[in-house]
């Protein structure tokens, strides 16, 4: 009977305690944490302990791909910035259709091509460097992170090959050019499709560089940098027969084009002589045929 009499009092005390405790922890936001601590054991060390640990790696880019354009023969660094890498690994691969070539894994390069190099720049930039680019280096490269499934950032590398053309003083493209002794040789070299027009342009006569040739004298090279390339002009005053030969305009060792110069000492160019002889021969043969046909007609 005494227990039954105490029951309402105990119930009121317990209810008050629950209300007070609940109000206290709800106010400071720690009620759920307290209940978890009382009702569950702490997690093992292999499980994530914070919300930040649960965040997967991601690329520090606004899109999942990038386009890079570089001139042939240059070096290029392909960038891949990865945030929250944690214990994952970064790899560079080259993709050609369904085929993939592993270039690097972690901090190691796995390609036998010595032109590939892996660079890491703090805090998160995994760079793939390719030196002395050639046309075959163009294509898709992927920076992959070893999540499940893997995530990838794609870089498309475009290789630009410069185009060179030699013209005469009238702007007409030539492969053979005739001059007379004492005249001025004037050749123009146009270079287009050059993302880096500051590259050095060299004129050569056979194997002799003309840009700084002081032994011949009377040689002038003037180069103008244009928006998408350059124009270089070669002047040789008082041309001599020794100035005949092949002239080459080159963009360092990347690309070149040539023209053959003939300096004549008053004679008619051989090509024109051959052309005239051929025309005369054809006319003579035609006249013989017509004459022979007319004689046969009169005799019939």
From TrEMBL:
Keywords from the UniProt entry: Signal
SMART domains, sorted: IG, IGc2
GO CC annotation: neuron projection membrane
PROSITE patterns per record: IG_LIKE
Keyword Signal carried by entry: yes
SUPFAM superfamilies: Immunoglobulin (SSF48726)
GO biological process: synapse organization
The keyword Aminoacyl-tRNA synthetase is assigned to this record: no
Domain Ig-like: 57-154, 162-260
Pfam families: I-set, V-set
Range of residues in the leader sequence: 1-23
Organism superkingdom: Eukaryota
The protein's name in its UniProt record: Limbic system-associated membrane protein
Organism of this sequence: Melanaphis sacchari
């Amino acid at each position: 009977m005494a227990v039954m009499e105490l029951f309402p009092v105990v119930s009121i005390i317990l209810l008050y305690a629950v209300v007070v405790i609940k109000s206290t922890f709800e106010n400071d936001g720690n009620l759920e944490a307290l209940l978890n601590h009382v009702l569950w054991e702490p997690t093992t060390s292999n499980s994530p302990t914070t919300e930040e640990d649960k965040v997967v790696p991601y690329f520090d880019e606004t899109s999942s791909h990038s386009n890079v354009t570089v001139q042939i023969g240059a070096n290029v660094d392909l960038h891949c910035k990865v945030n929250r890498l944690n214990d994952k690994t970064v790899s560079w691969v080259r993709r050609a259709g369904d085929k993939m070539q592993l270039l690097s894994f972690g901090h190691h390069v796995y390609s036998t091509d010595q032109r590939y190099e892996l660079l890491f720049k703090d805090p998160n930039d995994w760079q793939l460097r390719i030196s002395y680019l050639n046309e075959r280096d163009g294509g898709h490269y992927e920076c992959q992170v070893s999540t499940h499934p893997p995530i990838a950032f794609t870089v498309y590398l475009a290789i630009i090959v410069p185009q060179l053309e030699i013209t005469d003083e009238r702007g007409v493209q030539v492969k053979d050019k005739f001059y007379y002794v004492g005249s001025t040789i004037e050749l123009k070299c146009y270079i287009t499709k050059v993302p880096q027009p500051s590259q050095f342009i060299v004129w050569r006569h056979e194997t002799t560089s003309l840009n700084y040739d002081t032994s011949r004298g009377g040689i002038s090279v003037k180069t103008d940098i244009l928006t998408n390339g350059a124009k270089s002009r070669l002047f040789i005053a008082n041309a001599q027969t020794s100035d005949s030969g092949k002239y080459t305009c080159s963009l360092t060792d990347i690309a070149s084009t040539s023209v053959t110069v003939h300096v004549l000492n008053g004679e008619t160019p051989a090509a024109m002589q051959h052309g005239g002889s051929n025309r005369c021969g054809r006319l003579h043969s035609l006249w013989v045929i017509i004459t022979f046909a007319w004689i046969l007609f009169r005799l019939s």
